[in-house]
Amino acid sequence: MPLINHLKEHRARLGYNQAELGKMAGVSRQTISLIERGDYSPSVTLALKLASIFSVLVEDIFNYNEGEQE
Amino acid sequence: MKIKNSYVKIIMWMVLGGIVGAIGGLAGRTIGIGKFKEVFINIFELIANNIIQIQIAVGTLSALVILVNYISAKKLMVKDDNDVDELSDKIELKQTIALTFCSINYILSFILFGIAIDGRNQFIIASVIVFVTVMVFSSFMEISIVNQIKKGDPMKKGDPAELDFQNQWIDSCDEAEKLITYQAAYKTFNIMKYLLLATMIIGMIAKAALNAGNTIIVMGGVLWLVMVLAYSYYGCKLQKNKINL
């Protein structure tokens, strides 16, 4: 997956569990889990929402690495 | 050797199908279609003669799987655990198993009830009672499981007792859940194409060997046609609409 994310680290920093973060972002716990595992690349809207929750830039959570395999 | 030309490839598949069909036909003639017929008739006789016991056994087993998973999920939901995320994964797995078995129970009950409607079935009233009991139980359990899921995830909407439950449910799913549903539906569509083709072939064999008539062939063909037309219609319709994941 060329999209690397640091969602788990940011979530741990604020002490939220997946369900709590999902509720704040308006998505299910499973979706947060899928993103953290790198099994799902979120939409731009969701990525922006997550960045807003953590008060960081989208690039602080998600990095695109071309060297990684899709 | 890998064949690259698509036209040659498709002809090869057709030739292969022809060879398999010819071998099957020859085997049928050599061994004798009568023997196949005998085996099938014996199997169906066995099922028809014990249909009430089979109905009860299948209904009870499915009910047990549904109940065990539902109760187990309910217990886990009130459990205080440090790893909430891992616990939620376990609960969701149990709920998925319970819901899947509700559907399996419906389908198997319909098949068995269809077989039970037979002049030779001495326990036809009992068969009807078992069928109705299983259907009521599965429907009630489906409502309970959906309510349990909604309790764990208040974003989920929909009442299984309403006709547009599937629409309400998918509308309440988020982008990843919708994507998973659509991918699963596409894979199912592809599986169904092969299954319906197989159904028609089985229908042809059943017609030749068991005098089963044209019903299976026509039903398989109609379902295949409806599926492909519905897929094309919704494909064209959705291309013109706003894509809303």
TrEMBL record, chain A:
Gene3D superfamilies: lambda repressor-like DNA-binding domains (1.10.260.40)
Keyword Magnesium among UniProt keywords: no
Residue ranges of every copy of the HTH cro/C1-type domain listed in the record: 7-61
Signal peptide start-end: none
Keyword vocabulary terms for this entry: DNA-binding
GO molecular function: DNA binding
SMART domains, per database record: HTH_XRE
PANTHER family reported in the protein's UniProt record: DNA-BINDING PROTEIN, TRACRIPTIONAL REGULATORY PROTEIN-RELATED-RELATED
Name of the featured protein: Helix-turn-helix domain-containing protein
Automatic annotation (TrEMBL), chain B:
TM stretches of this protein: 12-31, 51-71, 97-117, 123-146, 191-210, 216-234
InterPro entries linked to this entry: DUF3169 (IPR021509)
Record's keyword annotation contains Membrane: yes
A Pfam family matched in the record: DUF3169
UniProt feature coiled coil, ranges: none
The name this protein goes by in its record: DUF3169 family protein
Taxonomic source organism: Alkalibaculum sporogenes
Alphabetical keyword list: Membrane, Transmembrane, Transmembrane helix
